[in-house]
Amino acid sequence: MMYDLLVVGAGPYGLSIAAHAASAGLSMRVFGRPMASWRDHMPAGMFLKSEPWASNLSDPAGRWRLDVYCAENGLTARHAHPIPVESLAGCGPAFAEPRVPDVDEGTIVRLATATGGSVAGNVDC
Ligand SMILES: Cc1cc2nc3c(=O)[nH]c(=O)nc-3n(C[C@H](O)[C@H](O)[C@H](O)COP(=O)(O)OP(=O)(O)OC[C@H]3O[C@@H](n4cnc5c(N)ncnc54)[C@H](O)[C@@H]3O)c2cc1C
To answer: What is the Å distance from ligand 1's center to 116 Cα?
Structure first.
Protein backbone atom coordinates (compact mmCIF):
# COMPACT_ATOMS: atom_id res chain seq x y z
CA MET A 1 0.00 0.00 0.00
CA MET A 2 1.25 3.47 -0.87
CA TYR A 3 0.88 6.26 1.68
CA ASP A 4 1.33 9.99 1.34
CA LEU A 5 3.28 10.10 4.57
CA LEU A 6 5.09 7.82 7.01
CA VAL A 7 5.80 9.23 10.46
CA VAL A 8 8.53 7.35 12.29
CA GLY A 9 8.30 8.07 15.99
CA ALA A 10 5.21 8.99 17.98
CA GLY A 11 6.67 11.63 20.26
CA PRO A 12 5.18 15.10 20.67
CA TYR A 13 6.32 16.21 17.23
CA GLY A 14 5.42 13.01 15.39
CA LEU A 15 1.94 12.89 16.90
CA SER A 16 1.37 16.58 16.21
CA ILE A 17 2.47 16.32 12.59
CA ALA A 18 0.35 13.20 12.14
CA ALA A 19 -2.73 14.90 13.59
CA HIS A 20 -2.34 17.79 11.15
CA ALA A 21 -1.68 15.45 8.22
CA ALA A 22 -4.72 13.31 9.02
CA SER A 23 -6.87 16.40 9.29
CA ALA A 24 -5.59 17.54 5.88
CA GLY A 25 -6.69 14.22 4.39
CA LEU A 26 -3.29 12.64 3.81
CA SER A 27 -3.11 8.86 3.92
CA MET A 28 -0.44 7.83 6.35
CA ARG A 29 0.98 5.46 8.90
CA VAL A 30 2.57 6.36 12.22
CA PHE A 31 5.12 4.02 13.77
CA GLY A 32 6.20 3.93 17.40
CA ARG A 33 4.74 3.68 20.87
CA PRO A 34 3.03 7.02 21.62
CA MET A 35 5.25 9.18 23.85
CA ALA A 36 7.74 6.32 24.32
CA SER A 37 10.63 8.66 25.19
CA TRP A 38 8.54 10.18 27.92
CA ARG A 39 6.90 6.99 29.13
CA ASP A 40 9.93 4.72 29.04
CA HIS A 41 13.14 6.73 29.15
CA MET A 42 12.75 9.76 31.38
CA PRO A 43 13.96 9.56 34.99
CA ALA A 44 11.19 8.75 37.44
CA GLY A 45 10.37 11.72 39.61
CA MET A 46 11.58 14.22 37.01
CA PHE A 47 9.76 17.50 36.52
CA LEU A 48 9.26 19.23 33.20
CA LYS A 49 11.46 22.23 32.48
CA SER A 50 8.73 23.78 30.38
CA GLU A 51 5.60 25.52 31.55
CA PRO A 52 2.24 23.89 30.71
CA TRP A 53 1.53 26.39 27.93
CA ALA A 54 4.91 25.54 26.37
CA SER A 55 4.34 21.77 26.62
CA ASN A 56 1.27 21.39 24.41
CA LEU A 57 1.09 19.02 21.51
CA SER A 58 -0.33 20.67 18.40
CA ASP A 59 -3.75 19.61 17.16
CA PRO A 60 -5.37 20.93 13.98
CA ALA A 61 -8.11 22.69 15.92
CA GLY A 62 -5.52 24.35 18.15
CA ARG A 63 -7.45 23.32 21.21
CA TRP A 64 -5.43 20.52 22.84
CA ARG A 65 -3.74 21.72 26.00
CA LEU A 66 -1.71 19.94 28.63
CA ASP A 67 -3.42 21.78 31.45
CA VAL A 68 -6.86 20.66 30.21
CA TYR A 69 -5.67 17.05 29.84
CA CYS A 70 -4.25 17.20 33.37
CA ALA A 71 -7.45 18.65 34.81
CA GLU A 72 -9.47 15.87 33.16
CA ASN A 73 -7.17 13.27 34.71
CA GLY A 74 -6.89 14.61 38.22
CA LEU A 75 -3.42 16.08 37.64
CA THR A 76 -2.24 19.61 38.24
CA ALA A 77 -0.59 21.79 35.61
CA ARG A 78 -0.25 25.41 36.58
CA HIS A 79 2.17 28.14 35.63
CA ALA A 80 5.24 28.24 37.90
CA HIS A 81 4.41 24.86 39.46
CA PRO A 82 6.77 22.12 38.23
CA ILE A 83 4.86 19.44 36.32
CA PRO A 84 5.72 15.78 37.00
CA VAL A 85 6.97 13.95 33.91
CA GLU A 86 4.09 11.49 34.23
CA SER A 87 1.64 14.27 33.40
CA LEU A 88 3.06 14.62 29.89
CA ALA A 89 4.06 10.99 29.47
CA GLY A 90 0.50 9.75 29.81
CA CYS A 91 -1.09 12.05 27.28
CA GLY A 92 0.09 10.23 24.14
CA PRO A 93 -2.74 7.74 23.73
CA ALA A 94 -5.34 10.33 24.77
CA PHE A 95 -4.02 12.73 22.13
CA ALA A 96 -3.53 10.12 19.42
CA GLU A 97 -6.64 8.02 19.76
CA PRO A 98 -9.14 10.50 18.31
CA ARG A 99 -6.75 12.32 15.97
CA VAL A 100 -4.19 9.90 14.56
CA PRO A 101 -5.48 6.80 12.77
CA ASP A 102 -3.62 3.49 12.75
CA VAL A 103 -0.67 4.04 15.05
CA ASP A 104 1.57 0.98 14.70
CA GLU A 105 3.59 0.56 17.89
CA GLY A 106 6.35 -1.35 16.13
CA THR A 107 9.86 0.01 15.65
CA ILE A 108 11.08 0.70 12.14
CA VAL A 109 14.36 -1.17 11.74
CA ARG A 110 15.01 -0.67 8.03
CA LEU A 111 13.96 1.75 5.28
CA ALA A 112 14.73 1.33 1.62
CA THR A 113 13.66 3.10 -1.54
CA ALA A 114 11.51 1.06 -3.88
CA THR A 115 10.18 1.44 -7.41
CA GLY A 116 8.82 4.89 -8.17
CA GLY A 117 10.52 6.53 -5.21
CA SER A 118 8.32 4.90 -2.62
CA VAL A 119 9.73 3.70 0.66
CA ALA A 120 9.57 0.18 2.03
CA GLY A 121 10.10 -0.45 5.70
CA ASN A 122 10.70 -3.35 8.04
CA VAL A 123 8.89 -3.24 11.33
CA ASP A 124 10.08 -4.98 14.47
CA CYS A 125 7.18 -5.42 16.89
C1 LIG B 1 15.81 14.66 30.44
C2 LIG B 1 15.00 15.47 29.43
C3 LIG B 1 14.10 16.42 29.89
C4 LIG B 1 13.33 17.17 29.00
N5 LIG B 1 12.43 18.08 29.49
C6 LIG B 1 11.67 18.78 28.62
C7 LIG B 1 10.67 19.69 29.06
O8 LIG B 1 10.47 19.89 30.25
N9 LIG B 1 9.90 20.34 28.15
C10 LIG B 1 10.10 20.14 26.80
O11 LIG B 1 9.36 20.76 26.01
N12 LIG B 1 11.03 19.31 26.35
C13 LIG B 1 11.81 18.61 27.20
N14 LIG B 1 12.75 17.75 26.74
C15 LIG B 1 12.94 17.66 25.33
C16 LIG B 1 11.93 16.65 24.78
O17 LIG B 1 12.55 15.41 24.64
C18 LIG B 1 11.39 17.18 23.50
O19 LIG B 1 10.78 18.44 23.70
C20 LIG B 1 10.33 16.30 22.86
O21 LIG B 1 10.20 15.01 23.45
C22 LIG B 1 10.76 16.14 21.44
O23 LIG B 1 9.73 15.48 20.78
P24 LIG B 1 10.03 14.58 19.53
O25 LIG B 1 8.71 14.06 19.08
O26 LIG B 1 10.87 15.33 18.54
O27 LIG B 1 11.03 13.44 20.07
P28 LIG B 1 10.77 12.24 21.09
O29 LIG B 1 9.87 12.63 22.22
O30 LIG B 1 12.11 11.73 21.44
O31 LIG B 1 9.99 11.22 20.20
C32 LIG B 1 10.64 10.46 19.21
C33 LIG B 1 9.99 9.12 19.22
O34 LIG B 1 10.44 8.36 18.11
C35 LIG B 1 10.53 7.02 18.51
N36 LIG B 1 11.39 6.34 17.55
C37 LIG B 1 12.69 6.60 17.29
N38 LIG B 1 13.14 5.77 16.33
C39 LIG B 1 12.09 4.99 15.97
C40 LIG B 1 11.93 3.94 15.02
N41 LIG B 1 12.95 3.53 14.25
N42 LIG B 1 10.71 3.35 14.91
C43 LIG B 1 9.68 3.74 15.68
N44 LIG B 1 9.77 4.74 16.61
C45 LIG B 1 10.97 5.35 16.74
C46 LIG B 1 11.08 7.09 19.92
O47 LIG B 1 10.80 5.92 20.66
C48 LIG B 1 10.31 8.30 20.46
O49 LIG B 1 9.09 7.91 21.09
C50 LIG B 1 13.52 16.97 27.61
C51 LIG B 1 14.43 16.01 27.15
C52 LIG B 1 15.14 15.25 28.04
C53 LIG B 1 16.09 14.20 27.50
So the answer is: 32
